[in-house]
Structures are given as C-alpha cells and as structure tokens.
C-alpha cells in the first residue's frame, strides 16, 4: 500500500507542498512528508537526479535519520571507507599520515562516507513512487496569498500549493525570491575553492593527500584505484564583490595565478584544470539567517544554514533538518505558521553548534601564515600518537522526536 494513503496516517487533509531542489534535503524532506500524509511535488532544474560528485559524510544524529528511513544497508554498501589522510609540506615531504576520522572527529566503523551521487540516487529511489517529480524545470515566480503559494514554472505551468520549501542549495533561488538578495545571509570564511575530477595517474586508492603552504592547499581524493580522483584547490582570498568571480574564465585565471609557482603535483592539477568540464568553484562560506521562513515559504538544508565544507556537516544538517521540518508540520496538523516556528525552535541550536565548528580565518586545515602552518603541523604530528579520535558533541547534539508518536 502506498504509504501516503495508508490507514492511520496522521490527518493533514492532503495539504500540498512544493519542494524546490532534488539534491539531499529535498528528497529526504519529501520522504517524511509523504509518510505524514502530505501531497508532495519536487521541482528540479536538472534533467534527472545528479550522479557522481565528491564524497560526503553522514554523522551523529543524521545516522539515526537514515536508519529510520531504512536506508542503512544501502548506504553501508556504498560506504567509501577512506583509510588514510596524508599531509605534505611545501616541498612534498610527509608531515603526518592519519586516519581521516582522527582529523574530522568521525567514528570509524559507525559514520558513513559516500559519493554524493550515491546518496541522492538512494534518496530518489526511496520516494519516486510516492512523489511527483518535475525535472528540467524551475520556479520563475511565486506569489503568496491567504489561499496558498501561486507558482509559475519556467516551463509555463501555473499551480497553487499550500506551502513551498526551498531546498535548492547555498545560492538558493527560492531564498532570493522570498527573502531577498543573498548578501546579508552570506558569511564569507576567507577562502575560495575549486573541485574537479582528473585521471588517477598517482596510484592512490581510498585515501586523501593534501599539500599546504601558507594560505594555499591542494588535495587529491582517491575513492578507488581505478576511478578518477577528485582534485581540490583551496586558497585564502579577500572577499570580492558578490558577483566578481561569477564567470568561469575569471575563476580559472585566478586559480592559475594563485598556484602558478606551487610545487608537489599542483602543476599536474593545473594541467587537468585546463581540460576539466566539471569544475565547481565557490566561496567558502556559511548561510546564516535570522529566520528560516516567510509566510508559507520555508528553507531547509544549505538554503537556510549551509555550514561550509570546513565543518563536514552539510549533508548531516540537511538530513536532520528535513526530518525536523516534516515532523514539526505534522505535529501542528499542517498549520504552516506553527509548524515552521516549531521547526526553527527545535533545530536552530543544533545548526548553530555545527556551524560553530569553524570560524572565519581559523580553519585548522588551511592556515594562512607560516607560523600557523607550523603549529598545525605540530598538532597533526601529535595526533598521530593519540588513541582513536572521539566524536564531536555537536554531531549528535539533537535527539530526534519519534515518528511513531504522530501516526
């Protein structure tokens, strides 16, 4: 029996919800909303679920979310199991070689690391039979009224929904339309980065190798010996005008200029960058908002509270936020104002603790001065002699309410 129609589902009078974004937060939210009896539509500008992508982590409270979704066996099978993280100095010499969890605060044998595309595919498969997906489309305009949210899609359709949820990433168009420009919510952390794939000509497997000089880093993430590696370039940079580096040509020119004299394998990365067709370039930043809803529109995941990759918690916040938003709406019988307020009240402290794992200019892995880099290297060498790392309290700082209580 379709779970959205099963007897005993919490009564919501089949309120309709449009979710913008079919990445991680969107399908996870759709999963829980359908089980609470909502009728869900997801619109996604891509033509299909996105495959590939860099490795992402699922930790702490988020593990309980995917466990309750019944996805743990599939995710354990997709687990990458990176075994080593090697740090190099400017000359390419080894500073320290550690288990990745020693650096991240993860728990070996418990936390998950999977390809982003594997997670999005698993989430999509879990909801595709219960949710209407509109691929290759997006929201052009929205207008709120006492009757709902009137949406005009880029493809030309016009529809009205009871609520609209933005799950469309750190540069959310939904947020821009409902809350205004991104700049007031965008908190720059002092770095720019690029990530792309290149052939694994280095003999690396299930490991990360990172090279540093003050204010610059280059890394290779190898998921398997026969797969392409993910190349990563990160550098400190003054905050530019918001759209100053929006053009790919300007982005690449800045990368070539910044790393022109770099050693180790960085010249190989720059050569690969010339030919790469999957370069993702962005600022290292967080999204911080005074509120996550406006009328009938709310935000979840990176759209509302992107923590930056420096925390390693973006995926976990998206999964937990999706669960909490769906539960809050169901607990308030679909009353959007009460539900959105409850969601924010119950989730904001968890978000703040995880965003607080990093502060501007103080990224432990990417020191900007020679002295800070020496201190970081000394800490890494000392970690090599310590017992297994302990989990970070922020990762598990929220106890999920019970889904069964509302059924």
What's the structural blueprint in terms of helices and strands?
Elements: E1 16-20, H1 25-35, E2 39-44, E3 55-58, H2 61-68, H3 72-78, E4 84-88, E5 94-98, H4 100-104, E6 112-115, H5 116-127, E7 132-135, E8 139-145, E9 148-153, E10 158-161, E11 163-166, H6 173-179, E12 186-198, E13 207-213, E14 216-222, E15 229-236, H7 248-258, H8 266-275, E16 280-287, E17 293-294, E18 297-299, H9 302-305, H10 314-331, H11 336-355, H12 370-383
Parallel strand pairs: 1-2, 1-11, 2-7, 4-13, 11-18
Antiparallel strand pairs: 3-6, 4-5, 8-9, 9-10, 12-15, 12-16, 13-14, 14-15, 17-18
Which key phrases capture this entry?
single chain, 407 residues, alpha/beta, 7-stranded mixed β-sheet, 6-stranded mixed β-sheet, 12 helices, 18 strands, globular, disordered N terminus
Rg over CA atoms: 22 Å
How would the global form be characterised?
A: globular
In terms of per-residue confidence, which ranges show pLDDT below 50 for 5 or more consecutive residues?
1-12
- Tally of separate helices: 12
Helix content: 25-40%
Average of per-residue pLDDT values: 90
Strand order of the largest sheet: 5-4-13-14-15-12-16
DSSP, total strands: 18
